[in-house]
Amino acid sequence: MIGLSIVIPVYKGANSIGPLVKELSKLEIENGFEIILVNDGSPDNSYQIIKSLVEETTLPIISIDLARNFGEHNAVMAGLSVADGDYIINIDDDFQNPPSEVKKLYDYARVNSDLDVIYTFYAKKKHSFFRNLGSKFTNWAANFLLDKPKNLYLSSFRCINRFTKDNIVSYVGPYPYMDGLILQTTQKIGSLLVEHKSRLGGESNYTFRRLIRLWTAMFVNFSVMPLRISSLFGITTCFLGFIMALVTVIERFTGDTPVGWTSLMAGLLIFSGVQLLILGMIGEYLGRLFLTVNGRPQFVIREIKQSKRKLNIRNDFREPLKKTIFFKNLYYRIL
């Protein structure tokens, strides 16, 4: 077992992953470290660069090539499944988190060993307006849905201990959401201020579509709050409908002719639309449950490689992964 595993999901990271690994190689980590690079179906030549890093570097590196693009959180889960460190740090491939901050985060986690998770936060984020807006909404929704502490900022640059990692990888659903899994596992969470730089090159991979998928996973996979809100709304509208029916009956017996057919039709259309929306929400829950029960894989691994250096790395990383797959009812597959 080693001190630290650094898990890096890679998607369109051809320009940044090489310099990132080079900078990480300069770190002096007590008890040693390994780097786990997970290629999440990148359409560019990211995996070719990753393979060259594995073959040429003197660092202990494990590369994982996923069969297709599964999403950042699925890629992180793939990396966690082979991580062997006492602590695991997740860092993006865009170089916005300086590699020097990895050691700072690791040292902070070891000093505060009573905490299971350390999230980082920034004095000023160098994201686009759209990305910052999406991040604010994600944190607001997490406050509401996941019982997140309000003063905690959820970021992808985080450190978890082995206890948290072992509990997280036991999740077998096809739609993992890392922060949801963490908050389900522990409330012993701290935070650390770190530096945030501008992106090394290219544009953010978080498109509006990807943010919608992330929010859907949060809403549906890790909370029943939407269903509870739907039930509350249904009770409220039924109560209002009963009152309106009572008013209509009273007007009929007092000789007044009920008026407002236009508003009545408008109300019917609105409430019919809401009913369809709620049915769609229930269908989303049932659909995800169906895919989980039928064994839709969380990720599919095409290839795993490790660097020639054996120090601080398991000699046989395939066997532990196969055992993990077995105990998860073959929800993961290796091609």
UniProtKB/TrEMBL annotation:
<dbReference type="InterPro" id="IPR001173">
    <property type="entry name" value="Glyco_trans_2-like"/>
</dbReference>
<protein>
    <submittedName>
        <fullName>Glycosyltransferase, group 2 family protein</fullName>
    </submittedName>
</protein>
<feature type="domain" description="Glycosyltransferase 2-like">
    <location>
        <begin position="5"/>
        <end position="148"/>
    </location>
</feature>
<keyword id="KW-1133">Transmembrane helix</keyword>
<keyword id="KW-0808">Transferase</keyword>
<keyword id="KW-0328">Glycosyltransferase</keyword>
<dbReference type="InterPro" id="IPR050256">
    <property type="entry name" value="Glycosyltransferase_2"/>
</dbReference>
<dbReference type="GO" id="GO:0099621">
    <property type="term" value="F:undecaprenyl-phosphate 4-deoxy-4-formamido-L-arabinose transferase activity"/>
</dbReference>
<keyword id="KW-1003">Cell membrane</keyword>
<feature type="transmembrane region" description="Helical">
    <location>
        <begin position="259"/>
        <end position="282"/>
    </location>
</feature>
<feature type="transmembrane region" description="Helical">
    <location>
        <begin position="219"/>
        <end position="247"/>
    </location>
</feature>
<dbReference type="Pfam" id="PF00535">
    <property type="entry name" value="Glycos_transf_2"/>
</dbReference>
<dbReference type="GO" id="GO:0009103">
    <property type="term" value="P:lipopolysaccharide biosynthetic process"/>
</dbReference>
<keyword id="KW-0448">Lipopolysaccharide biosynthesis</keyword>
<keyword id="KW-0472">Membrane</keyword>
<dbReference type="InterPro" id="IPR029044">
    <property type="entry name" value="Nucleotide-diphossugar_trans"/>
</dbReference>
<dbReference type="GO" id="GO:0005886">
    <property type="term" value="C:plasma membrane"/>
</dbReference>
<keyword id="KW-0812">Transmembrane</keyword>
